[in-house]
Design brief:
Length: about 675
Amino acid sequence: MPSPEGESDMLPGLRATVADSRAKAAATRKRRAAEVEAAERDPVARVLVDLPLAHLDRPFDYLVPAKDAESAVPGVRVKVRFAGQDVDAYVVERAAESDHPGRLAPLRRVVSPEPVLAPEVVALTGAVAERYAGSRADVLRLAVPPRHATTEAKPSAPAPETASAATREAWTGHEPAAAFLAHLTDGGSPRAVWSAAPATDWAAALAEAAAATYASGRGSLLVVPDRRDVDRVDAALTQVLGEGHHVVLTADAGPAARYRDFLAVSRGARRIVLGTRAAAFAPVRDLGLVAIWDDGDDLHAEPRAPYPHAREVLLLRADLQGCGVLVGGFARTVEAQQLLRTGWAREITSPREVLRARARVSVVEAGEREHGARVPRAAYDVLRSATAEGPVLVQSPRAGYLPSLACERCRTPARCAACTGPLQLSGPTDPPRCRWCGQQARDWACGECGHRGLRAPVLGGARTAEELGRSFPGLPVLVSGGDQVRATVPDRPALVVATPGAEPLAAVGYAAVVLLDCWLPLARAELRTDEEALRRWANAAGLVRPGGHVVAVGPAEHPALQALVRWDPAGFAEREAAQRSEAHLPPASRMATIIGTPGAVDDMLTLFSGPEGTEVLGPVPVGDDEDEVRAVVRVPRRLGAALSGALGEVQRLRSARKLEAVRVQVDPFSL
DNA sequence: GTCATGTATCAA
DNA sequence: TGATACATGACC
């Protein structure tokens, strides 16, 4: 029991030792501080340290040495001594005084005078970290590319003085697109959710929106799912504005090129940025518009902690910076629909007559086929007549996309008699088993037609191409998918067989688009199954030329196919939104998953106190791994920020106590 | 993460 | 009692 007098009951020798070491430490600090002459003006630098610890996720104050007075400006990289080690940090602010009661350590070194962390990006990364219950250091690593010294030494070439006049041809048929663009040109910040009509050159439309914003003297940020889309919009921007006004930011560029292009943006030499998800953090000067294309594509979800989604990053940014917003796609996500439901954004869409003129969409039941062929009669007829006019796109779901079985005759997915789970083959000789309950299905009979034969339903693109090639002798068959993705196909009669997402672009659009095996993507038992299926079909159908045919082969009465036939992504999203709302699923609710060892997750849940009304589901084991469990926490949407806050709080607490880490994922893309 | 400090535990 | 392990909290 320590006495109230503190050290008084220590041995005299020990007391001396303690006093001695304290004096020494103080002397060392004094000597260090004395060595450094502080900057005269604003001698305090507020810095963010690059440490992975959640509880250190706040600014720390350091003394600016006089020699760094001019270079240690907000945004520059510095080295600081932190708890005995040299760590990387960013200066975020200079100040005259510090709130820190102790003595300030000096900055060790200004790594470079280049300010790479703009104030608005400081704010954005903070908001993203908060929203995703992650650490700002993690977000900063996504936002600022690694330094490349040689590149930094070179100046960024300025953009040409003048740009070509903005056009708005690609927006024809969309309402109220003209008003939206005019508003951007006038310096306004309109927010829109845009459903593109089939045969729309969406890449050109994005470029025109950027050009309209540019005309007001402001910059734009365009985020697309992948490299192919980047190339498309890249070409469109050059077409609309000419060379040298925009820059492309993608992860696949090398370190030097990536840093060079980043600097061109951060220095203000380029104010139009196009890129994939990480570009959402780009420090565009005078940001007037953020745009995202096909926000339902899972490539927009960052796979690294804290797993931010590009759409959410852009929306947070729009809130912080008050810029315009464009969320576009052929399909529409429930999240985008939510922006309309709440009145936050306006809708841009096409009148019925435009849609009718753009594409004739029909659906054919898979049963209406001949000789067990994969393509029913009606679809063949469309193929035959369209191939006389130009290329025809055939979308064929990827082999291995779903390892489940279907009825050999009518192709209804085979379901377990006990629990209605999907049946799958586990080995070449074993009887099929249920994927959910594991029960063997020896005497299976189709619930629809009574047939007893089963088949592995998926033909790869290659098999489809082979089958179709035989039916259309003499016609070139081009295949795109897997690691052989074609960007474009020439405007000549041909069959173009592609897996979803790998559809090439045809110069003037496809004469027809045929979607095979549409029941297949609908047979998955996941959160966004229908939405994802419709998105993939719509993206293929969108490639049709004006007036072309779209034929889907599948269950005609299914709501997703109905939405395709009526080209009604809005109605579909609205219906999905209502269903999700009923089932308390996002975006009606804010959800988060907590994954880790059973002990760590239990512990996390004990420490966690969410807002009033928080539901905790699980934890349940994840996959086959017995060492990992997952818990789901859920609150009504309006409490989303509180949930994120509470999760972040526990993460900080656990990090400070050095407890075993758990993975927290807010709004996970899939469950 | 490192470092310093405080508290618990145990053999001698 | 002293040596040691372990927990806790600060870190500018």
